[in-house]
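ESCALATION

Customer reports they have been waiting on this structure for their group meeting. Please prioritize. Original submission:
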Amino acid sequence: MERDLPKMKKPLLLSLLFLFLLLVPVTAFPQSAQSQVMISHHITGGGSAPVFDAATTSTNVTSFSHTCTGSNRFLLVSISSDAGGGTTWTAATYNSVSMTLVDTLNNATDGANVRITVYSLIAPASGSNTVAVTRTGPPANFIVIAASFTGVNQTTPLGTSVTGSGTTATQPSVTVTSGASELVYDAIATLNSNADTFTAGSGQTKRASADDAGNVGGATSTEAGAASVVMDWSSPTRYWSSLGVSIKP
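Update from on-call: job pushed to the front of the queue and completed.
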């Protein structure tokens, strides 16, 4: 019986060796997990705040070219219009790809009818491509501004949008819920703009503005994110509609 003991240990040693080999891939799991985190980091745009890329304006023209560059791209298109004749905006595309409506608001106070409408697109094509907007109703005066960004979350790029409107007695202003690593965007529409210069509020950077000889005006700006961000304009003081939203990294 004693002579048989070494023979009995061999199967046990082989079993332990086999078990050890099975456990080796488990030790490599942290590297695999790290790769998954890196992939997720790329898709979401990372921890840094989104960055403004470029803006292009168009006055009373429904299609024009805009160039997007960079990685984790995102596009916002604002339409500031005179809606007095019942004009509404039903679609927007970039490079023939349909965009998603963020929100729209018509300020009909005192019959003013000035509308702000914003569309968005995740991962717009890079390079120069055509922005096209579609309306229903009679011809109207309008300003279209395409603003592109990089480093944006490619799954959930936006927070909850906020709209506001007012008369000549109030300055354009909306308060947006955001975060420290986000970027707040706003767009405004004004009626009887009279070649206003559009002065953005403190902490904001005006990205683009345009005016169609006094009928309607439009502008966009951005500001670094925080828990609550006021997006306002010290001028003009006209009938206005405004939309603000936070862009996520």
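Sent to customer with the following note: Residues 47-247 form one domain.
Escalation resolved.
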